[in-house]
Specification:
Layout lengths: L3 H10 L2 H31 L25 H11 L2 E4 L19 E4 L4 H4 L9 H6 L4 H17 L4 H6 L1 H8 L4 H29 L5 H26 L5 H30 L5 H17 L1 H11 L12 H4 L1 H31 L5 H13 L3 H28 L22 H24 L8
Helix pairs in contact: 1-9, 2-6, 2-9, 3-17, 6-9, 6-10, 6-11, 6-16, 9-10, 10-16, 10-18, 11-15, 12-15, 13-15, 15-17, 16-18
C-alpha cells in the first residue's frame, strides 16, 4: 500500500475539484470554529462571580425589608434571606463545541427564601427569528453535517467512473489485488479529512480560554471514529455496480436517513419512553396554586406556628412580606415537583438517545458535544437537585428568625450554607459513545474487507 500512496496522491491532486472541496470544507469549519471559540471565551469571561454573603446589610439590600414596626436590625434577617444568591453550574472544557446550548438552559439560578419560579423571572433575551427557526449551527453540529458530505464528494465515483469508461477492467487485468487500490484511495482521503477535522477542532479549543486537553483528546478520538464510520459506508457504496450518479444518490440518501430521519424517529421514541409534561398544564397548575396560597395565607401562617411550637408568635403586627412567607413556602413545595418533572423527563430522554445513538452518527456527535461541554441533561438535572437542596438549607437558616421577628446579630451570619457544584464530566458516557462509533465502523470495514474480491469484478 505504501507504494500506491504516491500514485493515488498524484491521481487525487490532479483533480482540482478535490482540492476545492477540501478548501471549502476547511474554510467553513474554520469560520465556525472561530465563532464558537470566541463565544465560549466571552461567556467564561462574563460569567457572574458568586455573591459573598456578609453579616452587615447596606441600604440597597434593605429596600425589600418590612417597614411595619421594625427596626433595621430586626429587618436584616428578612433582607439577607430574601437576597438572591447566584448559584452557578460551571461548564466544562468542551464548551465551544456546543456553545449555543447556553441559550436554552440557565447555568445561573437565583435562590432565596422567595419562590424563584414565580418571583425570579428574567426578561427573555433578544434573538434572531430566522436563526431561532433554523437552529443555531454550532461547531459540532456543522462538523456532523458537513463531514459526511465531504466524504461523499471525495469518494463516490472512485470505481463507478472507471467502470463506465472501461478503465477498471484494464486495472483488474493488470493487478492481482485491485481492492488494494480502493483501500489505498480511501485511506489517503481518510487521512486528509482527519487532518482538516483536527485542525478546525484545535482552533475552536485554542480560542476557548477554559478548554481542557482531556476534552480535546476525547473529542479527537470521537471524530476519528465518526470519519472512519462514514468512510466505511462510502467503501460499501463503491461495491454497488451502478453508475457514479446513482452511487452519489445512494450515499446522499444514507446521509439524509442517518442524519435527519433516524434522529427524528429516536426523538419520537424518546418522548414515548419518557413523555415531556405539558407546559400549558403546568402553567395552569401554577396559577391555581398561586390562587390557593393567596386565599389560604392566614391559615397557612397559623399552621406554620403550630408546626413550629419552639417559635413564639410575635405580639406586634407582622409585615405582609413576613405573614405571607408560609404561603410562599407552601406554593414552592407545590411548584417544585412540576419543575423537577421537566428536568427528569429531559434526563431520561437524553439517556434514551445515548443508548440508541449508534443508529445515527450525527446524533451521537451532538450528544458527545453536550457531554464535553457539561450541558447535558443528566448533569443539569443534578445541578437543579443541588440548587433545591441549597435552597432548603438557606430557608431553614433564615425563616425561623424571620417568623420569630427576632434581631439578627452579626455572629449569626457565620454558619451560612454554601453552594458548591463540582459534578465532573462523565468520562464513562463519553468513552461509550466513542466506543459505539468505533465498533460500528470496524464492523462495516470488516464487511467491506470480506467483500473485497467483489472489486475485481468489472
Amino acid at each position: 500500500m505504501m507504494t500506491l500512496i504516491p500514485i493515488e496522491w498524484l491521481r487525487f491532486s490532479r483533480n482540482p475539484l478535490n482540492l476545492w472541496v477540501l478548501a471549502l470544507f476547511f474554510v467553513l469549519m474554520t469560520v465556525s470554529a472561530t465563532w464558537s471559540g470566541l463565544v465560549a471565551r466571552e461567556y467564561r469571561h462574563t460569567q457572574a462571580v458568586p455573591v459573598m454573603i456578609h453579616a452587615g446589610v447596606n441600604q440597597a439590600e434593605m429596600h425589600d425589608a418590612p417597614k411595619v414596626h421594625e427596626s433595621a436590625e430586626k429587618a436584616s434577617a428578612y433582607a439577607l434571606g430574601s437576597k438572591a444568591q447566584a448559584l452557578h453550574m460551571p461548564v466544562l472544557g468542551g464548551l465551544a463545541l456546543n456553545v449555543s446550548q447556553l441559550d436554552f438552559i440557565s447555568t445561573t439560578i437565583n435562590a432565596s427564601i422567595r419562590n424563584r419560579h414565580t418571583d425570579g423571572r428574567s426578561s427573555d433575551p433578544l434573538f434572531n427569528p430566522l436563526m431561532h427557526e433554523l437552529g443555531f449551527l454550532d461547531f459540532a453540529t456543522l462538523l456532523a453535517l458537513f463531514t459526511p458530505l465531504l466524504i461523499i464528494a471525495l469518494s463516490y465515483g472512485l470505481i463507478q467512473e472507471d467502470r463506465e469508461s472501461g478503465v477498471w477492467r484494464l486495472v483488474c487485468t493488470q493487478s492481482t489485488k485491485p481492492w488494494m487500490l480502493v483501500f489505498t484511495a480511501l485511506a489517503m482521503r481518510f487521512g486528509l479529512v482527519l487532518i482538516l477535522m483536527f485542525l478546525s477542532s484545535a482552533i475552536t479549543f485554542a480560542l476557548d480560554s477554559g478548554a481542557s486537553l482531556a476534552a480535546l483528546g476525547q473529542w479527537l478520538v470521537f471524530i476519528s471514529c465518526y470519519a472512519l464510520l462514514w468512510f466505511a459506508i462510502a467503501g460499501l457504496a463503491l461495491l454497488l455496480r451502478i453508475s457514479s450518479g446513482a452511487a452519489a444518490l445512494v450515499m446522499l440518501g444514507v446521509w439524509l436517513i442517518l442524519t435527519f430521519a433516524v434522529p427524528a424517529g429516536l426523538a419520537f421514541a424518546a418522548n414515548q419512553h419518557s413523555a415531556m409534561p405539558s407546559r400549558l398544564t403546568a402553567i395552569i397548575d401554577i396559577r391555581h396554586f398561586q390562587e390557593l396560597s393567596n386565599q389560604q395565607r392566614q391559615s397557612l401562617l397559623s399552621k406554620w406556628y403550630a408546626d413550629h411550637p419552639e417559635i413564639t408568635p410575635p405580639t406586634t403586627e407582622l409585615a405582609r412580606e413576613i405573614s405571607s412567607l408560609p404561603a410562599g413556602l407552601e406554593l414552592d413545595s407545590q411548584i417544585r415537583p412540576l419543575m423537577v418533572s421537566f428536568d427528569a423527563a429531559r434526563k431520561s430522554q437524553f439517556e434514551f438517545l445515548e443508548r440508541w445513538s449508534g443508529l445515527s452518527p450525527a446524533l451521537a456527535m451532538v450528544l458527545m458535544a453536550d457531554r464535553l461541554a457539561g450541558l447535558d441533561a443528566p448533569r443539569y438535572a443534578d445541578f437543579i437537585a443541588q440548587v433545591n437542596h441549597f435552597e432548603d438549607q438557606w430557608r431553614a437558616r433564615f425563616v425561623p428568625s424571620i417568623m420569630a421577628n427576632s434581631p439578627w446579630s452579626a455572629n449569626e451570619s457565620a454558619p451560612l450554607p454554601s453552594f458548591v457544584f463540582n459534578a465532573l464530566q462523565d468520562d464513562t458516557a463519553c468513552w461509550r459513545l466513542s466506543g459505539i462509533q468505533a465498533l460500528i465502523a470496524l464492523a462495516f470495514f470488516g464487511l467491506l474487507f470480506a467483500l473485497r474480491r467483489q472489486f475485481a469484478k468489472s
